[in-house]
Amino acid sequence: MSIAYFEGEFRPLTSVSIPVTDMALQRGVGVFDSLRTLGGKPLALGLHLDRLQLSLRDAGISEPVSRQEMEAVIREGIARMGEETSIRIYVTGGDRYEEGNFPAPRWFALFEPIHRLDRSATTQGVTLWPLPHERPLPLLKSINYMAAFVEKGLHPESFEVLYCPAGEITEATSSNAFMVIDGKILTAPLERVLSGVTRTFVLETAREAGYRVEERCPKVDELSRAAEFFITGSVKEIVPVVKVGTTRIGDGAPGPVTRHLIQLLSASLDRRVD
Amino acid sequence: MSIAYFEGEFRPLTSVSIPVTDMALQRGVGVFDSLRTLGGKPLALGLHLDRLQLSLRDAGISEPVSRQEMEAVIREGIARMGEETSIRIYVTGGDRYEEGNFPAPRWFALFEPIHRLDRSATTQGVTLWPLPHERPLPLLKSINYMAAFVEKGLHPESFEVLYCPAGEITEATSSNAFMVIDGKILTAPLERVLSGVTRTFVLETAREAGYRVEERCPKVDELSRAAEFFITGSVKEIVPVVKVGTTRIGDGAPGPVTRHLIQLLSASLDRRVD
What we know:
The structure is a homodimer.
Chain A: E1 3-6, E2 9-12, E3 17-19, H1 23-27, E4 30-38, E5 41-42, H2 45-59, H3 67-81, E6 85-92, E7 107-113, H4 119-124, E8 126-131, H5 146-154, E9 160-163, E10 171-172, E11 175-181, E12 184-187, H6 197-208, E13 212-215, E14 228-233, E15 237-244, E16 247-248, H7 256-268
Parallel strand pairs in A: 8-9, 8-15, 12-13
Antiparallel strand pairs in A: 1-2, 1-7, 4-5, 4-6, 6-7, 10-11, 11-12, 11-14, 14-15, 15-16
Helix pairs in contact in A: 6-7
């Protein structure tokens, strides 16, 4: 069963509610972070809590509890689940907005059994739909995903959308994006996108394996001559992309660099648990 | 006292909650509309319900109840309030996302005493802070306002933000935007912005009064030679803007066209009640 922690208690996930006075409901003010367990232990919990704290700071939302208290809740939730778990931690804007700050946030954590991706995504690759703008507040993980959902609805063949402001590829709906071109791996720099935890692991892994890596935005007009393309996320790990909009990537199948990185990442994950 | 309607009942507003399973909380999926009463009657209720229906259609969210039922709830809420009322109608994404659609939305309506603007906003004019991108999903009224709140927090002197993608002025946080320049009133066309109910009234009123009106985006680089600038909304009506970022508009005080339109709009509003 899925459970949630809210206001000091663990409860069945479907029994937890948030007041309509909360700015999260009225104006989409909220941040979150998402991680999972591996062998019953949280994967990169420290990095995810670091990132949540940065999202809160940049959003002007106060920290609802200490980091230690939040970490203890996460560990207890994982223990109560007793199986591989997906964890999402939300902090809402709460009911007050004062001088640019949200001083009275609410927070809750959701614990659910992991839904792993359909393996066909990894073996066959997926399609992304390009949008001509960037993700709202791209340096933090806000809950403002509605544009991505609506656009995906218009392009149901797409796995996620791909944000491409002014022809520069930044990130996908909830993934970092990587292009392999001219023997190099390109991905948007941290001044432009969310600091993905799996992005960090993939860049480390790729450099260790001797790949050349450049942190600059890949361009939409480079897609037609890109050899490979892939996206990364904490639950999805690495997913090959074989089409962006109507443009086929490489020969339309997951390429050797992507497959190699999938292997290397998978082999290194168990040393990332905290 | 403020009240809310949810799941068939009117209750104190602070006692209504929405489950954390709802996509509105998890991913900011929701639309709303906002109107007010004048003399105890809803102002342009028909136009607001039309617009809510368009927002729902464009978002792929099903209509939660019939328009007749929603209208009856609004009228009953107003009667229960017994004073001039601000009404906000929210429809959330609900718990399900299927093939681009949200087939099981929730909805609630909030009824609160009207908070009229501090009169100094109208008499002295306000400052807007320009952003280099557009509002998420600009043709519908989604709840994804977080970027505007965060940016306003960084520029606390600003009344709202002003969306200016690629140097073109589209709209403000929750207002339509108008520039008076070279004897003409400019405002973004409906292909680019939300169809503001007060925008419609102001354009009608301006044309009837003999002003020249052009529906095209005013440009950021026209600000320095604009004579006047103002924004409109259903509760704020018309608010003069005297500064955008660091650029003073005209002589830095509300101008004659804006003051004339404020007068004309105010005099015409009582024939807009339904």
